[in-house]
Predict the 3D structure of the following.
Amino acid sequence: MSRESENIVLLLVGLGILVITWSGVFVRYVKPGLLPWLVASAVLLIALALFVMACDIRRGGPRDDDHGHAHSHRAAIVWLLVIPILLLCFVKPPALRPSAAAPSVTPVSNDVLNQAFPPLPPGRAPELSLPEVLMRWAQDTNGSLTNRHITVTGFVLNEAQGVDLGRVVIICCAADAQLARIHLAGSAAAEAAGLPDNTWLRVEGQVPPRQPSSAKIPTLEATTVTRVDAPPNPYA
Amino acid sequence: MELLVGILLACAFKAATLQNAVALNAALSTAGTVFCGVFVQAVPFLVLGVVVSGLIAVFVSPERLARWLPRRPAVAVLAAGVGGAALPGCECGSVPVARRLFGDGGATGAAALTFMLAAPAINPVVLVATAVAFPGAPRMVLARMGASLLTAVIIGWAWSRWGRPEWITRRLPTPGVRTESRWVVFAEAARHDFLQAASYLVLGAAAAAALHVVVPQWVFAHLAADPILGVLAMAALAVVLALCSEADAFVAASMTMVPLLPRLVFLVVGPAVDVKLFAMQAGMFGRAFAARFAPCTFVVAIASACAVGSFVLGGR
C-alpha cells in the first residue's frame, strides 16, 4: 500500500471511530463510559493523518525513505485495517444476541462477598438493572429487595420450564458478554409467555428473598408486564 | 489508492445488502460484533501507546535510555519491571512502547521486554480493577502483581541470557534527516507505530472473534473444575479470549465454579500472551521472535502463577 493510501486509511480509522460514537452505534461493542476516550483518540488520529498529509504535500511528495526496500514488507498488512473501517462505517454488526453471550448466570455467590447494600431508591416501584437485582438477591445482608416492588427491563427468553427475562451484560467490550436472567412467575407472567424471544419488556413485581434451598436463579413475581422498545444501550 | 477508493465506494453502495447478510447469519453477526468490540476497545489504549512511543522517539534516544538504566543487566530488568507500573493502560498500548524502547536490542532490549510484560499487568488501574472484582479475596491482587512481575523479570533475564538479535526481523524506520522538527519526528513515529500495531490488532481481533464463535466458553468452564486440567484450560481461555487486562479480573471473578488458582493463571497469562498480542508482536518485532517469545512466556506465566498462587492463596 502506498504512503498516500496509508495516510487515508489512518484518517478513515479516525473518522470511523468518530462516526460510531456520533451515531451511538458504539454501545453495541463497548461500554458507554468509553465515549470520551473514543472521541479523544478519533480526534488525535484524524489530526495525525492530516498533519502527515500536509507535511507530504508541502514537501512536494512522500518521504524518500518510503521508496526503499526496507519497507516493502509492510505494504500488504495495512490493507487489513480496511476491514474494521468497512465494518464500523457500513456493516455495523448488530448488538449481541443472548445465544452468543456466555450462559453464566452466576452472580458471584461466595458467601465472603455478602455485604450490606444501600437501600433501594424511593418510589413505588424503582427501576433496577437486572444484574443489580441478581447481586442484591444473592449478596445483600440488608434484604433490600424484600417486600418491595421493583421495575426491571429485559428481553423474553422462552425456556422449557417457563419464561425468563434476560439481559446481556458486558464488562468491557462485546468479547466478555454474559447472559443474566431471572425467572418470571406470578399473575402477569402468562402475558410474557406468549411473546416471541427477544421481545423487550418492562416488568414490575417482587423478588422473594433467597432461601438456602433456593435455585441459583431468582424469580420475579410479576404483577404488570409492558412491551417497550429496545433501549438505546442494549447491554446492562 | 484507486483500489482503496474502489473498495470503499462498492461497500458504501452495497451497505444495506451487507448489513442484512450479516444480521441474518447468527455466527457472522456474533463474530462481527466481537471483532468490533475487541478493536474499538483497543483503539484508545493503542492511541495512548503510540503517543507515548512517539514521545520516546523524540526525547529518549537508545543511548540516553541506556544511561538511565542501572549498569548491570539483571538490575536493569528488575527496574524495568517495577517501572511498568507507571504506564496505566492495557496490553495493546505497551507493545508499540516496548518496541520503541527496544531499539536495536542492545543494552536496553531485555529491559524493554520486561516492561512490555509488566506494564499491562501491574499498573494501578489494573490492580484497582482486580481489587474491585475480588472484594472477598484481597490476596488475589497481591498474587496477581507478584506472579506477573515474576513472569516479566524471568523473561527479561532469559532474553539477556539466550536472546538473539537476528530473531528481530522488523526494523523501525530510520529517522530521517536530523534537522527535521520534533513534530515531524513525533508524527512519523506515531503514524508508523499505529498503522503497524493496528493492522496486526485486526488480525488478532479476527482470531479472537473466530475462536469465540467456534469454541463456546462453557467448554473451558467444564474443564476448569479439575485442578490440573483447570490451570491449563484457564490459561488456554486467556489466550483465546484476548481480553483487555483492565477487564479480565471481572470476567475471572464471574467464574465462580473455578477455584482461585486457575483464575489467577487466567489473570497472569492474559496480559502476557494472547492471540492479539501474538499478532502484534509478530508485526512489531518479527515472526521468528514472536514464535519463540509467546510459548516461552506462556509456560513461564503458568509456572509463576502456580508458584506464587500456591504460596499466597494457599490451597483454595
In short: Strands of chain A lie at 127-128, 150-159, 162-169, 178-185, 200-206, 219-227.
